[in-house]
Design a protein that fits this description.
two-stranded parallel ribbon, alpha/beta, 10 strands, single chain, globular, TIM Barrel, eight-stranded parallel β-barrel
Length: about 400
């Protein structure tokens, strides 16, 4: 998903689980409705004040969680070009602190995806980016984040779309690189804040160009967990633990019910491939929750294009989203479903536009349809609602 990668890279530079064994109907009833729009909620583009506009929209849509990417080189922008890690790093958490504070006033919680691009000292080619990212340095970053946000952020995930070459390269080595990053990040976060939850993967949905641009998520997951094609242990490998599995089940060209081909690809209508894989990995003791169960699913990015080659009319976009959120809510393995983008981005960020509000942060037909669904679902007790604010730092 090169366009979206470019958005995040430009943004950073510019702004210098499955339930155990038997599925539970209760899990589906309380699915979290979430949203992500880093330009609106963190950076406040196109101008200051957009966070408040975005939070107003979030409340109207019964959002209980906001996800935000934390690009490593963005929060270390002052030092990011250095080829040697500074002895003391002063991280810029400003936008995230403000989001957490303002979201808490509405009872909305924030989850952070600690991701790349990495600063120059942490890459194999000593340039800011995603080349052979070093787990030892990532551990320092993850620990700093968990220490800073302790008591205010209850959930983290490690990296973003690591099975796509734009986020970890070279792609053939990405499973090994990611496994090291995950182990380092999980350990650092749990040590700094034992109460925090950590999600694994954040995978993109399908193979692109026969694995040259993206590896199919299940093929990639087997490599990360040291599993054979039949999900049996391939070789001696420690069990990975995760509080949930994060996935992006996009399919921009089809309705939510379309079953995307390829046994290792996973879109919304083929989530059973992923839940089955996770159950098998748990049985093989290759990936489990800390208590030994099967991780639930967190669908941490989803949407349809409102502009560009694959654009839908606002009415069709809204209908597809309602159908998608309904499908997710009825799936007992899904803990969270997230709409990726609220506000229509301006150039140069407009290449990946899955927004459901105008550039002026006004609700579109798509937003109104999804908000109406969420209101009805909340009233019926089928989705989680905003909770008591977390304590301020």
């Amino acid at each position: 998903m090169t366009p979206r990668l470019k958005l995040i890279l430009v943004s950073a530079l510019t702004c210098a689980a499955l339930v155990p064994a038997v599925p539970s109907a209760h899990a589906a009833r309380k699915m979290e409705v979430a949203v992500q729009d880093d330009n609106t909620f963190v950076i406040q583009l196109p101008r200051p004040g957009y966070r408040a506009k975005g939070l107003k929209l979030a409340t109207q849509m019964n959002v209980s969680w906001i996800r935000a990417n934390v690009p490593w080189n963005y929060v270390t922008l002052k030092y990011a070009k250095k080829k040697k890690q500074p002895k003391k790093i002063v991280y810029n958490w400003t936008g995230y602190d403000a989001l957490i504070r303002d979201a808490a006033k509405r009872g909305i919680q924030v989850q952070l995806a600690l991701s790349g691009p990495a600063p120059a000292w942490a890459t194999g080619n000593h340039k800011q980016g995603v080349d052979r990212v070093k787990a030892g340095y990532f551990k320092v970053f993850a620990r700093a984040a968990a220490e800073h946000f302790k008591g205010r952020v209850a959930r983290y995930s490690i990296w973003n779309e690591p099975n796509f070459r734009g986020w970890i390269s070279p792609i053939k080595k990405s499973p090994k690189i990611y496994r090291a990053l995950y182990l380092a990040g999980y350990g650092a976060i749990k040590k700094a804040d034992p109460a925090a939850k950590v999600l694994i993967a954040e995978t993109s949905p399908y193979d692109i160009k026969h694995g040259k641009n993206a590896t199919a998520p299940l093929k990639w997951l087997r490599a990360v967990t040291c599993a054979k094609a039949n999900y049996k242990r391939a070789h001696k490998c420690a069990t990975l633990k995760a509080d949930g599995y994060a996935h992006h089940p996009y399919d921009f060209r089809h309705s939510p019910t379309y079953k995307y081909p390829g046994k290792d690809n996973v879109t919304l209508a083929t989530l059973g491939r992923l839940t089955s894989a996770l159950a098998k990995l748990k049985k093989a003791k290759l990936l489990t929750t800390p208590s030994g169960g099967v991780p639930q699913l967190y669908l941490t990015e989803y949407g349809y294009f409102s502009h560009g080659k694959y654009r839908l009319s606002r009415s069709k976009q809204g209908s597809y989203l309602v159908k998608a959120f309904t499908m997710a809510q009825k799936n007992p393995h899904v803990k969270q479903m997230l709409q990726y983008l609220f506000v229509q981005p301006k150039p140069p960020f407009a290449a990946f536009d899955t927004s459901i509000a105008t550039r002026a942060a006004k609700p579109t037909t798509a937003f109104k349809k999804l908000a109406a669904w969420a209101k009805k679902a909340a009233k019926a007790g089928r989705i989680a609602v905003a909770t008591t604010p977390l304590p301020k730092k």
